[in-house]
Amino acid sequence: MSAAVAGGAGREFGPAAAARAAAAVRERHALPENPVAAIVLGSGLGGLAGRIENAVRVPFADVPGFPPATVVGHAGALIGGSLGGRPVLALAGRFHMYEGHAARVAGFPIRVLRALGAPVLFVSNAAGGVRRTFRPGDLMVIDDHINLMFANPLIGPIDAGETRFPDMSAPYDRGLQVLLREAAVEARVPLVEGVYAGLLGPTYETPAEVRMLDRLGADAVGMSTVPEVIVANAIGMRVAGVSCITNLAAGISPVKLDHAEVLETTTRVADRFERLVTGFVSRL
Asked: In CATH terms, is domain 3-282 a member of 3.90.226.10?
């Protein structure tokens, strides 16, 4: 068992550890002092990092508590700079529970981003379309999520000042969703809306599982994001999110699913996604 998993339920991935990690990073790297947002870039969506001006790139290896990124399409770097004229932080890569990380580890980068000063979290991911009207390449504003990972990053001891039972009645901020839609209109980027279901993975879902998700109210399904959003809500960050619908889910799609298809679709929609997020950040 990796050290990350073994310590996943302890305070080594809590707010005190995040504060130490943030201080260590700032000591070595000139990141923006007052970022308006932190952005998590999902599989194949890391091209947005190229639009960040005056970028300072911090490899995950330089951030205490960060394991390496191992998934294709995840660069594994914390980036600071300017996007849309506003100071931002971005994670080019994330930690998935299917890699063997505990939920607390998957949510730890969000604590570090908050300790670095970001009040807003923007999450993105590649997801399979459960709603039959979706098409590959659609960008879905995440309106809510269903946690089917059978884990929660808040399990374990809590530190002073933390809430034991944080409210999750509006995990994705309504006001930020308005800004996303305004940015989409200006950039002429069509959007859909829906509920994201987070599953553990790493297998894609069976047709029976997809039918179950449909009946539960899910519109898209993926293997990330939920632990990050839970942590963000628990520590007082406002959250917005977008899923790139990269494929139709099993039983809907007539072809077999593979990660190459995910990356191919995210590459095709990269320009639209990047214009949307840049416009969103400029409104913060």
From this structure: no
